[in-house]
Amino acid sequence: MSKMIYILNGPNLNLLGKREPEIYGHDTLADVETNCAEAGKRPGLSVKLLQSNHEGELVEMIHDARENAAGIIINPAAYSHTSVAILDALNTFEGPVLEVHISNIHKREAFRHHSYVSARADGVIAGFGVNGYALAMQHMGTLLA
Ligand code: DQA
Question: What is the model's pTM?
Answer without folding.
Answer: 0.98
